[in-house]
Write a structure and sequence with these properties.
The longest helix has 20 residues. This protein starts with a strand and ends with a helix. It is built from eleven helices and nine strands. It is α/β, with parallel strands linked by helices and 257 residues long. Helix 1 runs parallel beside helix 3, helix 3 packs antiparallel against helix 10 and helix 5 packs across helix 6. A seven-stranded mixed beta sheet has the order 1-2-3-4-5-7-9, with helices on both faces. The chain has a two-stranded parallel sheet with strand order 6-8. It has one domain: 2-enoyl-CoA Hydratase, Chain A, domain 1, CATH 3.90.226.
Amino acid sequence: MGNQRINEGVHLDSLANVATICFAHPKQNCFPQAQLKALTKAIETCTKDDSVKVILLKSDPTNAFCAGASFDELLTVQTHKQGKNFFMGFANLINAMRLCSKPIVARIHGKAIGGGVGIVAACDYAIATNFAAVRLSELAIGIGPFVIAPALARKIGSASLASLALQPNEWKTADWALSKGLYAEVHPDFETADSAAIALAKQLATYATEALAELNKTLWADTDHWAELLPKNAEISGRLLLLPETQQTLHQLKSNK
């Protein structure tokens, strides 16, 4: 596979059966639609590549891990179709991660918001730093974390999902995320978290390919219905996005920036 740029802001390279995917955006590593599609393509490329046995997912460490969907693009949505298409970016990404036969190890160096938390939940093993607090901000602007909710409920349970979703202005600490199962490990600094993620990816790459694939099937059992569920949830988010109250809140937030 070698070193390649899938699209602006998404890089993919492979070495010794480990594919490393890194995404970056100057606005706190948020995701415009084009970049979501690029990350989805990178995951799908790794799924099809027989030389890849494990994926290491990370983002530019100079910003948050991920600030979720692009706020600027959110403001451009004007129709229900556009709204659904906007949220389908995360739906397609999560489904691609769900269907990936290779374990996905994530290095979470900093804060994750909204859709970024959903990406963490869709990874198979997340290694974080103490700075990697999480927050679901959707309810505060008039929508909800509908597309990412299945991934979060699967990973941390409905009660912990409710605690996140119903407190959209509250940050949950990395230790909270660890205690709920969102993170598998939490380290005191970037260097140790980064080293641990790389070491685990390399170790996983020494295991039998078929065993890894079968284990992934087991870990993701009973999620086939997500192929229909996530698009339905994207439609709900798209509809709520266009409600007058939501639009008013969004434009107030824009004017305060």
